[in-house]
Amino acid sequence: MVTSVANTNSASNPTSNTAADSSKFSTDYTTFLNLLTAQVKNQDPLSPMDTTEWTNQLVQYSSVEQQIKANGYLETIANASGASGSMTSAVNYIGKTIGSDEPTATLTDGGSATWNYTLGSTATSATLTIKDADGKTVWSDSADDLTAGTHSFAWDGKDSSGNAVGAGKYTLSVSAANADGAIDASAGLTGIVTSAQTENGSTVLKIGNSSVSLDSITSVS
């Protein structure tokens, strides 16, 4: 007997993994054709096989193939719609000042970068550390403002020895403590949004040369 067509979940989930469904369909269809060919070759000439069953199977495979293609179209439309919605939301931030918990800034040659750092409570000591894209510390020093709240920090783009660093992405981290021990501390970017664009398939806002994702926004003014 010819094997039956495997049922898929695509009808109930139009945006299921279409590539996986297509791959499985191709494998099942090849198996079906191999079995059908073997049965035709080995059938009894005096009692030929009933073609009704495998004809129905071919019809089912054709139906599944069309369903997978339709799911692929729906998935493409859904992705395009989602990207369009994100961009529509993003352009509303242009011209506004936002704060975010994105700690990585993009530095140009000879440029500078500005971050915010936030202390959960007043600290007795706080250290700001800047690392490059490879995780190497290029600059570290004590924070000037130790009071609870959010403070601005501007970096001139030079390492701890006073040498200008190269262009690239740099990440600020902050550690702080008071008499009771370590306290909550975090770093992020702030600035005026100049544009919105797509990077690596995601919608981001541009603050100067730096990119901020929509889900990292913590304040808008």
UniProtKB/TrEMBL annotation:
Q: What keywords sit in the KW lines?
A: Bacterial flagellum biogenesis, Cell projection, Cilium, Flagellum
Looking up InterPro entries in the UniProt record yields: FlgD, FlgD/Vpr_Ig-like
Q: Which domain of life is it from?
A: Bacteria
Show the Gene3D superfamilies listed in the entry: 2.60.40.4070
> Any one Gene Ontology biological process term?
bacterial-type flagellum organization
Task: Using the record's annotation, list all stretches that form the FlgD/Vpr Ig-like domain.
Answer: 106-180
Could you tell me which residues belong to the region Disordered? 1-23
Which Pfam family name is an example for this entry?
FlgD
Function, in words: Required for flagellar hook formation. May act as a scaffolding protein.
Stated family: Belongs to the FlgD family.
The molecule here is called Basal-body rod modification protein FlgD
| UniProt organism field | Asticcacaulis taihuensis
